[in-house]
Every structure is written in C-alpha cells, then in structure tokens.
Hints:
There is one protein chain. The protein is mostly beta strands. The chain folds into 2 domains: 22-118 and 134-147, Immunoglobulin-like (Sandwich); 155-203, no CATH class. The protein has 3 helices and 19 strands. Strands 4, 6, 8, 10, 11 and 12 form a 6-stranded mixed beta sheet that branches. A hairpin with a 3-residue loop joins β11 (134-135) and β12. It is globular. Mean pLDDT is 75; it is low at 1-18, 120-130, 196-201 and 213-220. Residues 23-151 form the Pili assembly chaperone N-terminal domain. InterPro entries: Ig-like_fold, PapD-like_sf, Periplasmic_pilus_chap, Pili_assmbl_chap_C_dom_sf, Pili_assmbl_chaperone_bac, Pili_assmbl_chaperone_N. This is Pili assembly chaperone N-terminal domain-containing protein.
Amino acid sequence: MINLQWVLPLIFLFFVPFSAFAGISLDATRLVFPESNSQQGIGVGVTSTTSSSSPYLVKARVVTAPDAESTDTPFVVSPSLFRLEPSTTNQLRIMLRRGGLPQDRESVYYLQVIAQAAGKHNEPDKPLAPGGAMILSSGILVKLFYRPAGLSVSPQKAMADLQFSRRGQQLYVYNPSPYFITLSSLNAGGSLCRSVRQNRTACWPRFPGRPMPSVRRPVR
C-alpha cells in the first residue's frame, strides 16, 4: 500500500466558488443535500453576468446522469423554468419530493441548468469548466450529492482513509467510506495525473479500488 505521506493528494469536496457558461453562472460547482434539509430544501443562485446584453430563458432540473434525459429523481427544482434578466440573480430551490434513498452512503445526481439567450442559437459543445463543473452545449451541469444523516464517519475521516496501491503501471484508489470523494490534484512519483493536466477531476464512490486516469509516467 502506498503511503499517503508519499502520495500527497490534495482532496476537496468543494471547488472554486463559481462556474459559468455563456453569460450565466452558478454560485456553486457541486451541491450537498443533507438529509436534515429534507423539509426546506437547499438553494443555489443563477446569475446573468454583467457582460450579458439579452435576457435568458433558463430551464433547471435534476437528472440521473450527465448524459441522461431522465428526470425521474427524488428531487424537484423550483422554479424549473424562468426568465433571467441581464445582471440579475434568481434563486433556485431544490426540494426532496420522495424518500427511499440509501441511508448508509451518499447518492449522486446532477443539477442541469440550461439557458437560451433571446434570439441566439445554442453554442457548440465546450470543454470542461474550471473546478469540475461540466459544460453542456447550452448550460451547466453540477453534481448534487444526497448525504444521509448519521453516516459512520466524518468527511474529514473519509479523506484520511483513502488507500492507494500500485498494480503494474496504474495507481489505484480505494475509498472505503460512504462518501463520494473528488481528487482535484494528485502527484505520484513525481507524475501529475492526467486528470489534473486536462482540467478534470476524478470522483470515487464507495466501490472497490479502481485506477486513477492515466499518469504521465509509470508510478515508481
């Protein structure tokens, strides 16, 4: 097992405070929905940037996967469709509409915010956004984590419990905790993992170890 002091990962559950695309921004790049908020929900702001000259028609929803169209999730967003004027902010409220989610681990969904400027066509696909927010052809997609109450360990302990091992030329990460843990930077044997160099992140749920996205050089 590779010593954590040698690997020196920088592990974050949250990233930079803003993610933006085509004149709109969210005030979060990932969202955590604690079970304790089941009644009141959680909020996130959608802002039309100062460079915007036209209003936007904004659609917001929670989907099951980045490329999924299904909105059959335990969450509902209000308002789900609204007009956003230039240089203004609108607050979204994400509510839990039904239970039945696992109570021994986090669950992950995705908040999708799609904006269409008045009189404009959708822009072509863009690369990944800073801080882990994935950009769609006309909007923003951020992870939404449902966090049950009373999980067996704290988020801080979960990060400390990550285990690293080498199998051949690959570095494997094993997350024994009930949390999804995102690595935003990882240096192993002097090699920065490709996920970081390509402005991407890697997220580990509680599953058996799987490899990091390929490293620049073999792990020594």
